[in-house]
Amino acid sequence: MADVRLTIAGRAYDVHCADGQEQQLxxxxxxxxxxxxxxxxxxxxxxxxxxxxxxxxxALEAKARVNKAEPQSDSLRxxxxxxxxxxxxxRGELANARAEIAALRKAAESQPVSPAAPPAGxxxxxxxxxxxxxxxxxxxxxxxxxxxxxxRLA
Length: 154
Description:
By secondary structure, the chain is mainly alpha-helical. The chain has helices at about 20-35, 45-110, 130-154, and strands at about 1-10, 10-15. Helix 1 (about 20-35) crosses helix 2 and helix 2 (about 45-110) runs antiparallel to helix 3.
């Protein structure tokens, strides 16, 4: 046990406290002393009574602010978790789209290219395989969807 001498409202008090708690006790006494010195007139007991009441009022106001902030912080945590999960989903879809693009490029590179000269006038490029057209359209749709999702999240 440690002994601490505290001065509150001009009066010294000898107080016992657990070892290591001396500084905390001195800080608390300084707060009480500040409140007590702010109250003019009346007896020392009256000063300490009103100091205690004002500190209790401050404690209740602080509790009310904490209680009001807790639901807001809970909803913010939920929103962050949702955003993180959506980001993970979008990153996964983007990785899949990149893999598909790489696979299509590799497949396109392995296709033989005809050295024939292109015909004059407007032309359409026939696909080597109809499945490539469908795959390219699906990839384009996915890319547009992912881009819209990224813009929405940003």
